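Re: weekly structure request thread

Next one in the queue (312 aa):
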Amino acid sequence: MKNKIIYLCLFILYLSVFLDAKTKIAVVKTADVPLYNEVLKGIEDHLKTQGFADKIDYYIVDKIEAGGEEKILKDVNVFKPDIIVTIGTKATKLLSSIKETPIVFSFVSDPVKEGLVKSMDTSGNNLTGVVSDVSPAEQFRILKLALPSVRKVALVYSSENSNIVKDGEIASKNFGIELKKHLVSSKKDTLETLNKISDVDVLWAIMDPVVWGDVDIISYAVENITLNKKIPILGFSENFVKGGFLFGLYADGRSVGLQTGEILSKILQGVQPKDIPIQYPKKTKLAVNEKVAKVLGINLTSEVIKKADVLY
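Done, posted below.
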């Protein structure tokens, strides 16, 4: 009888420890910047609404210092997380070396190109998450909302963005738009290509460091494409719109965080990462430069003005 009581007490103790056990989540951010902090806040807020707030033990790395990669990997392994969350491409590439732990990434540009996942439909491994790029379908939807008469769109891109370009081809056809593609490989190549662009209604700028990673190219595009050739530019950043692009559609940090939190919730409920498709941001922000529209003689629809989060 005494032994039974002892066993019962031990079982109750074990059960209470098991029920009180917290899920360990390691969060690694590429950099300690406002955008990534907004993403993390969104993740935490979603998990709170799902009742996970008191059931999670976080280990957070705010940024990746140069030369500190090995220490981060070591510290994360020592923490022994049940799930890893990465924010930004650099953090995701670093932590992807860990193969046995589910990894949910956020704000990664083209994970297929980076070799992180097999496809947008299935990673084929222990990763899943939300990309930073707004889907081409959403970009063309807003483009047609703003400029219903658009028929021809030029795109300058590098080989690094072949997957996004493929989605762009499908989206453009669905909206009755002819997509004129121009493949480039360098700054010189980009400038020469921009100089030749004509006979289009809009230039579509996607997140491509080869094409738009240099301020000289951005300035050249605004001066020669927009002001001289009167071709508006659809971009991916509020700063670009402030600098002379007609409009820009970009992901909202907190919303991407909430979306990432939804994926985390599924994994916490037992779904495998490879069974959760990679997602584009569901909610976006729109910046519009009314001054540029006036210079170009463009009358933007009232719908797009109302939808704009930022007006210049």
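The two ends are 81 Å apart (CA to CA). The domain at 2-131+253-282 is CATH 3.40.50.2300 (Rossmann fold).
Next request, please.
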